[in-house]
Specification:
two-stranded antiparallel ribbon, alpha/beta, globular, about 220 residues, binds adenosine monophosphate
Length: about 220
């Protein structure tokens, strides 16, 4: 199964992707996570992406398209769920081109829908583990020990791009450049719209209902 998960930053894409991976055995391909790993490893791509990421702007399409083509090429037979990619219409077109040339297609495009107030609350309260990448929330998903990762005890941090002023910029970028991707997929086929308000379990139940129907389960 090949799934594209769309939605504003803070819509819960990362959380739902992890659950899709557990249920359907596909690989989670998050462009943001791959970029953060590149940065942590000090690669050239990581260095090129740094200033864009820290100011809430998009990394240039050509870098991202190449990076994601590499990750998709290594995905298992079971498929993948794309998280944070494609983020511009050009990226979506490039993805389509490369899939068509391999005789493949995306099985489902899901749009997680949530309002702006909830996005601000979710993102500015988010804390992550710089070591393992686990994600917490000051109110909704507290770690067992305050300020420490449940898995490795590392001190949790706020991602530089989760600070309120950068979240605002990321949302502007989303409305300008990424929302048109939903329109692109609507023109080319079906987009499954999922109400992403409420707790993660509620959202998963709605999402799995749709994906199960698609997978004929
Ligand atoms: P995310 O964790 O998906 O919110 O991504 C964090 C940051 O990485 C974004 O604000 C962008 O700067 C960059 N990024 C991630 N995915 C993409 C993409 N598909 N195209 C361009 N930039 C991206």
């Amino acid at each position: 199964m090949r799934v594209v998960l769309l939605g504003a930053p803070g819509a819960g894409k990362g959380t739902q992707c992890k659950r899709i991976v557990e249920k359907y055995g596909v690989r989670h391909l998050s462009s943001g996570d791959i970029l953060r790993k590149e940065r942590a490893e000090g690669s050239e791509l990581g260095a090129q992406a740094q200033s864009y990421m820290d100011s809430g702007k998009l990394v240039p399409d050509e870098l991202i398209v190449k990076m994601m083509a590499g990750a998709i090429g290594k995905a298992p037979q079971a498929g993948y769920v794309l998280d944070g990619f494609p983020r511009t219409v050009h990226q979506a077109q490039e993805l389509d081109k490369s899939l068509t040339s391999d005789g493949r297609k995306i099985d489902a495009v899901v749009d997680l829908k949530v309002n702006e107030q909830i996005i601000m609350e979710r993102m500015t309260g988010r804390r992550s583990c710089p070591k393992c990448g686990a994600v917490y929330h000051l109110k909704n998903l507290k770690p067992k020990v305050k300020g420490r990762c449940d898995h490795d005890g590392t001190e949790l941090v706020q991602r530089p791009d989760d600070k309120p002023e950068v979240v605002k910029k990321r949302l502007e970028t989303y409305y300008e450049q990424t929302e048109p991707v939903v329109g692109y997929y609507k023109k080319n086929g079906r987009v499954l719209e999922v109400d992403a308000t409420g707790g993660a379990d509620e959202v998963s139940a709605r999402l799995f209902g749709m994906l199960d129907a698609l997978a004929g389960k």
